[in-house]
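Complex record, two chains
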Amino acid sequence: MRVHSRARTAVIALGAVAVLVLVCFVSVMVGNKNIPPGEVWEAVLGRGDAYATVVVESRYPRTVLGLLVGAGLAVAGVLMQAVTRNPLAEPGLMGINTGAAASVVAASAFLGASGQMQLLLWALPGALLAGAFVHLLGGRGAGASPARLVLGGAVLTAVLSAFIQAVTLSSPRTFDSYRYWVVGALTGRNFEAVWTVLPLIAVGLVVALLLGRALDAMALGEDSAAALGASPARVRAVGLLTAVVLSAGATAAAGPIVFVGLAVPHLVRALVGIDMRRQVVFAALLGAVLLLLADVVGRVLVRPQELMVGVVTAFAGAPALLLAVRRMRATK
Amino acid sequence: MKSPRSAARAVRSRERPATRWALLRLGPSVVLRAQVRVLYVGAGLLLLLALACVATLTAGRLGIGLADLPSALAGNATGVDAFVIDRLRGPRLVVAVAAGAAFGLSGALFQSVTRNPLGSPDVIGIAPGAGAGAALVALLFPGSVPVALGALLGAVAAMGVVYVSTGTGFRNPTRFVIAGVAVSAMANAFIQYIVYAIERDQATVLSAYLNGSLTARSWEDAATIGVVLLLCVPPAVLLSRPLGMAEMGETTAAALGAPARRTYTWAIVLSVALSAGAVTAAGPIAFIALTAPQIARRITRGTGPHLALSALMGALLLVVADLAAQHAPVFEDLPVGIWTMAIGGAYLGYLLSREWRKGAL
């Protein structure tokens, strides 16, 4: 284990925050209509001209939402990788996001649910069920290979997608809103969406921080953890539950987004080591940066149209996974 | 260490009498040797397939009466019956049989190369790749470039990416499975973007196609898949023996005059071509290629790739699934791919848990 000095960590933290602020700034600046940096600054301070202010302010909700979703997915990834001890654990690949999507679609098609708050509430049970499935697959000791979870997730995703397709194709109204939501997009969201997911993500982040010590103990092995006073079963259950809540919130806000929860934790461990509380903090920062960056890139690439953030993360994240496969040691 | 159950199974398999062979005399000079059980199973599958075909043509409100069916098939149908057989269900049935056979054959070839039930075109991401290629062509060059070409290029590209990124070819299931998941994720994200980007009416049609649909198939589709089958089946038949030898191990195969490496390359090329052709004609119908060879192998309990049986089984599965899709009570006329995805996904889950118990993955 490499030792990461406090000074070094502090520098990295400062750098991450600086990048985050910069990305936020770019996020309100860039879009279908670019606003020059000077005018953005004026508008942010409330002194800009009316047009620039309207444009800039219209980008606030998606920026804040991007921060929340990115942080939530990344921390969910950290938690899942720690709990399952599986480097490939991730809410997107495990099918948790698809679970949330399936129950949202079912609720809006059969029960007439609409509006952010209701859809959010409906995302939770689906994500929980999917999480329980993953728990059954991966919770049985450390013997599970990484491929096992990924494949289990792929199966779950396949069956749930079939269900989603069946429902959306039978109901054109649902299909129309779904095809837009499913790619994972931040456009067209208002602050109502932000206020709806904020509590979930905030609670999730706090619990993740509180769990840090116990998860560190778990990393030493279950017996050592028990000797140090942590109850492995309880820590695992709470950790997974938190991860599920975080990904349900993120999914309800922006649709199922893959690979953020996979890539960010690996990046974070390379930067600040394996201390769980540091991992959680930095994953939240970098996850937010990554998601906003993906959103900005999506806005720039195919102007005047937009590439949805979920498409960008898939194309950025899948090669990372392929690279990981190449570097995988030849295990069984 | 062996569990008592698998030990018992081993004993039982030793007690089983040696495979019985039958000789088929076709004329004075041609004699084919075949396993008796395989012949029985093949005949059974053919019978079931014929029944399913008859059911497809006769069932439902527009079905052709059973008594009129022979004359209708002979081309003497009139009125509604003519419409049903020429436009509505005729091409659909032919595409279902041919595409199902192509998927089954493709899966059998691929699985005998990877020596793993999970090594099927579905898991490798060929179907999403082909779908993405088709969608791209539909978006960029509507009408000018055939969608078939896009599907073929997409399938080849997806498989190329998986092949390159595993670093070890298709021999390590863990690797190619994860790489396949990654490639599928990319392809699916891309497909979803295109479905979002185009008009709503078009999106519904494309979305149905991308799930694998057999509604509104034309004789052109049937011709496409027919040509693919014509081109691919003869080499597949020739490859059957070398594949059986390759299963005995690379050294043995080489000693018998059929180097395993060359056999595998050909098998993968054929498998991709068959999959791409089937996807082009019927859309990326999920999991037929995965399940058909597995079920065929279970029924015959034999060794060898069983290409013919896998093809028959694929055709049967797809025709039955399409029959269900046409007449299912709640979800009317859903794309058949949704049914196969749901049922095949569950079967894949079962296969996975079995592989894990054996510790093979």
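Note: The beta strands of chain B are 21-26, 30-35.
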